[in-house]
Amino acid sequence: MKTRKIAIIGLGNIGQAVVKNIKKYSSLISRRTSLKIELKKVCDINKRKRKIADKFSIPFTANPLDLIRDPQIDTIVELVGGIEPAYSFVRGALKEKKNVVTANKALLASKGREIFSLARKVNRKVGFEASVCGAIPLIRSVSEGLVGCEVKKLYGILNGTTNYILYQMQKGNIDFNASLAEAQAKGFAEKRPSLDINGIDSLHKLSILSYLCYGVWPNLNKVYTEGISKISLLDIRYSAELNYRIKLLAIAKRNDGLLDLRVHPTLVPAEHPLSQTSSAYNAVYCDTNPAGELLFYGQGAGGPATSSAIISDIVNIASYENGFMRKEEKVSFRNTKDLKMRYYVRFMAQDASGVLAKISKVLASFNISIASVTQKEHKLRKCVPIIMITHEAKEDSIRKALSKIDNFKFIKYPSQVIRIEDL
Ligand code: HSE
After folding, report:
1. Exposure pattern of 103-124 as b/e (b: 16+ CB <10 Å)?
2. Which of 43, 370, 407, 417 minimizes the number of CB atoms within 10 Å of its CB?
3. Is 153 a known active-site residue?
4. Is the pTM of this model over 0.85?
């Protein structure tokens, strides 16, 4: 029986769940794979974590170098998170000729190119199944299952925190701040949730998917990224009346030789499975050739669920042909300004005659055609929401038209615009 000698750096929620589930499932894994997993050591800079190691009778250290330099260990599991010191640990482990398993999407999105090139140089593997959508075996499905497929479009709910917040806003009829507070109280959102809320966590995961699907590590600063903090309860309600749901989507599309990558709140038809993705679940919908449409759904976070992805990497890592590596390709990106789609627009305007005519005139001057318009009566009679759905229009024209409209005195708050994907 072959033995995999592993060590874990980082005993947070996921690290602890990995320890527990390796102990729980190692005999099942041995029966299925003839592989024995030996957890040689665990490490955390917080010395109080020693009691977790003691509970499972595993040697503990607070110094990561003890693991990285230990010749008896063949695979390092990095569960520290963030860029540094995680990057130094991963580089150090590869240089010591060890395989690496990581759940660190921020690290891969920023340093993936360097990490994979070093792994190739030292002939070792990097497993990162847990970095995108936690428990969903997405990395393996995209890199192996779809190896002969072209991914034309990919739409992902890649962040559970924001999905939970948007879902609860609708379900509980509460505003963004109340929903965030509830998510934090229930442990779905972190105390400092900005990476999730601002769409950056989704961007990191999209970047990894872009590498797998298109061979491209995008420049993170150049991918259009918008979070959910400006989504109001009004938008949730009115989009539902129009038979849409608002979801934070990470989107990748390739057509006419151009790659379009972006993260933003999106109106999705209510009957589409992505709209049915409730609570903190993740889902990814792809349109591919020749496999057609595919949908992946499951838990994207949480220690126990995510530990399954890490354990599968530990088991399979040595057998990965290329460790999921892709050859990089040269691809040109589509400029967000050149996008053409339908838009949901909400104006908060004074309720006076001529207002609608003036708004329509500006939209027409930018060649934006209105598909539907609704004016809502509102308790604050001086200011009413006007909701429009446009026909397909250019993003650049929408931005220019709204900035002109927002200068009118009768507009009381900045206008809201949300992109629509008619999936
Ligand atoms: N913070 C992430 C989420 C989980 O809310 O989905 C880890 O990737």
Report:
1. bbbbbbbbbbeebbebbeeeeb
2. 407
3. no
4. yes
Among residues 16, 28, 12, the alpha carbon closest in space to that of 55 is found at 16
Domain 2-131 class? alpha beta
Q: Is the pLDDT of residue 318 over 80?
A: no
The token duo for 106 is 């921020």
* Position 83 pLDDT exceeds 70: yes
pLDDT in tens, 186-244: 999 989 999 999 999 999 999 999 999 999 999 999 999 999 999 999 999 999 999 99
Q: Quote the ligand 1 centre to 411 CA distance (angstroms).
A: 37
Cβ neighbour number for residue 153 with a 10 Å cutoff? 17
How many angstroms separate the alpha carbon of residue 45 from the centre of ligand 1? Answer: 23
- Give the model's pLDDT for residue 319: 74
Q: Which of 205, 247, 376, 394 is catalytic?
A: 205
Which atom of ligand 1 is nearest the CA belonging to 103? Answer: 8
* CATH among 3.90.1150.10, 3.30.70.260, 3.40.50.300, 2.40.50.140 for 337-420: 3.30.70.260
User: Among 78, 82, 74, 22, which Cα is nearest to 52's?
Assistant: 22
Task: Return mean pLDDT, the chain.
Answer: 95
Q: What is the mean pLDDT of residues 160-179?
A: 98
Work out the average pLDDT over 19-39.
95
- Nearest-angstrom CA–CA distance, 32 and 280: 31
Which part of the chain is CATH 3.30.360.10?
138-301
The pLDDT value recorded for residue 205 is 98
Q: Return the H-helix or E-strand segment holding 75.
A: strand 75-78
207 lines ligand 1 (CB under 6 A): no
Taking the CB of residue 44, how many other CB atoms lie within 10 A of it? 23
